[in-house]
Structures are given as C-alpha cells and as structure tokens.
Amino acid sequence: MALVDFMSVLHKSTTRDYLARVNDPEYPKDKAAKLAKQWDYDYWDGDRRINYGGYRYIEGRWEKVARAMVDHYDLPRRPRILDIGCGKGFLLFDFLKVLPDAEVYGLDVSNYAISHSKEEIRDQLTVGSATQLPWTDNYFDLVISINTFHNLHNYDLDVALREMERVGKTHKYLCVESYRTEEEKTNLLYWQVTCEAFCTPKEWEWWFQQTGYTGDYSFIYFE
In this protein, which residues make up the domain named Methyltransferase (predicted)? Predict the structure, then answer.
C-alpha cells in the first residue's frame, strides 16, 4: 500500500470560488446538494453551480491518467480492469486506447450516468452499489475508484473498502477527498455537494487498516 498521486494534475486545473458556491441565490449549497445526491441529470449535466455542469468526454483528458496507471502497475497483456464509481465510463474508454486488449468493467450507482455513458463500452458498465460488487474474489488485475468512496456513509464505506479488496488481486487504487488544515476543511465543506466521509489523511489510513484494504491511494485537497 502506498501513496501514489495520479489525480492532482486534473484536480488543480479547475479554479473554484468557494464562497460563491455557498451563497448562490438560485442554487444555495443545501439546494445544490439535494439535487446532486439524486445522481441524475442535475448532477452530471445540469447547472455548473450544482456539480459538473455538463460531464462530457474530452479527448486525451483521461488517457494520460490511464497511461500513468499502466506505466506504474505491472499488468498482464489482457488485464481485467474495474472502475468503481465509473460515471460515464470515460476513464475506462481511454484505458482501451492504452491497452486495446484489456477487459474493462465499470459500476456506478447512477442510472443516468450509465445510460449516457460512452456507447462503445456501455455493455460493460453496470448500475449498482460499491457495497455489493457482482464479481467473484480476485477477479480483477486492477481495481480503481476515483472520487467515489468519500460519498459513502461510514457503514457503507466499511463494506465498500472490503469489497474492493475482495474482487481485486494485487493492484488497487483509490482517490478520495481529504483535508490537512482548517482552511482546506472549510473549502471542502463549502465546495462539496455529495461528500459524507470527512476524513484527514490519517483517518483515511485508519480506514484502510480497519478494513484490510491493501491498495494504493491518493487524496484530493481543496487548497
């Protein structure tokens, strides 16, 4: 298990106005959060003040992440790869650009995301919960989860981490939101609309030890 950062380069490319997020007259924070947690149109393709404001495929954006993971992990020529919280499947689609012979699978709680996913891999995506993965033990050569597990309540987070460990072989990676200072904690509280697990890095590491998660990880900070 190691701290491996694949994601900060994408996260830091966005400029954020934290106070505007909280004080917006049309979509104040509580209203935005209620809409976002439906995991439907508003979350993915609705107003930017709610969440993504249009989650569209951008050529090359996720390919560099996929390539960094392939370069880092010693995967077989035809690996099985699972993305827990895959959204519209953009990362998995770009994995196939790097490893054309890979078997990619994705799972997401959002019916909307799966029905609006990349058509080329839609048959490999499943609507479901991270707490009940429909695959056998040690099925995947690489299991990833990006910006998903912090959206779970503690009782589900415990189960989901154990499930991720169960279906993966050696290589696993997850990225979650976290904070190191009071300023970062405040910014996280202001910006997030779906986060339920507000943990420092040390607390996240406690979760990994508690659940037996042995994979790699990294943190997103709102600086």
Answer: 80-212
